[in-house]
Amino acid sequence: MNHIYMDYLPISLTMIDLEKREEVITLYDTYTGLLTDKQRMYFEEYYFDDMTLQEIASNHEVSRNAVFDQIKKTIGLCAKYEENLNLVKTKKEIKECIKSNNIDEIKKRLIKIIEE
After folding, report:
1. CA–CA distance, 79 with 7 (Å, rounded to integer)
2. Number of domains composing the chain
3. Residue 116, C-beta contacts closer than 8 angstroms, at least 6 positions apart
4. Are 31 and 81 in contact (CB under 8 A)?
5. pLDDT in single tens digits along all 116 residues of the chain
6. Are residues 91 and 65 part of one domain?
7. Looking at the structure, do residues 27 and 81 belong to the same domain, yes or no?
8. Are residues 39 and 81 in the same domain?
9. Statement to judge: residues 110 and 90 lie in one domain
């Protein structure tokens, strides 16, 4: 099995670079409806509210490691969903396709996207 999603799982969440962070947030935005309330809460507090793992842990009376594991699991799930569903990739391809001014080229590229 291809585990492309492992690229999104840093050893330390603080080691994630800006480009990867944007990719992770895009995945989260796309697949948030498939996550549990706790997964969404920890992820949003860490990535959107800029809380530290320790702050999140203290607020929820869990260990820092539990928060880290949950966020890491959430990233892995979102990446796994993308590996199987390709919604982010398809959206990106459609946006690129729309940039073309040639109707025949747009049709050709859209057919290719649909057939994949």
Report:
1. 9
2. 2
3. 86, 90
4. yes
5. 344 455 555 555 655 677 888 899 999 999 999 999 999 999 999 999 999 999 999 999 999 999 999 999 999 999 999 999 999 998 888 888 888 777 888 888 788 888 87
6. no
7. yes
8. yes
9. yes
